[in-house]
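Reading a protein record of the kind used here takes only a little practice. Think of the row as the fold of the chain written in a discrete alphabet. A record is reproduced here so that you can trace the correspondence yourselves:
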Amino acid sequence: MRHVPIVLVALVLAGCAGDPPLPDSTTMRVARAAHTATPLPDGRALVIGGQTADDAEARLATTLLFDPRGGRFTPAAPMAEPRYKISDAVVALPDGRLAVAGGYGVEVYADGRFSAAARGTVERQYPAAAPLPDGSVLVTGGYDDRTRVTATVLLVRAG
């Protein structure tokens, strides 16, 4: 009989040893899934979109700011349209702004608000986005609004 060693790996997500844990009362106030949480240059995180149920009417355009210093969520600026299933569609730009793809286009988060950057012709779920060296953003593929895989591409020019 052959013996296989078992290796256990621990992953520490809360920060450095000695940091206090978040209070049990810390919640987002509204349950959400298929959203993303993205770090900001100032140390906070922006929780973006998602959905409250498996229903097209339950998609969210709302966002939250999480401040780890106080362990609190606060409402942040909403997006122009709901976005969900965007885990690979938020990219940090070199100047600290965030590009958020999904839905029918791309919005940019800067200075506490969102602004439209580009509008496509296909609704996207699970798109992939990549920042390019010139500051542009490439958004590729995903599923359309009928859950068909799409080969469409959206290039958002820097600016």
About this structure: The domain at 36-156 is CATH 2.120.10.80 (Neuraminidase). The first strand starts at residue 36 and ends at 39.
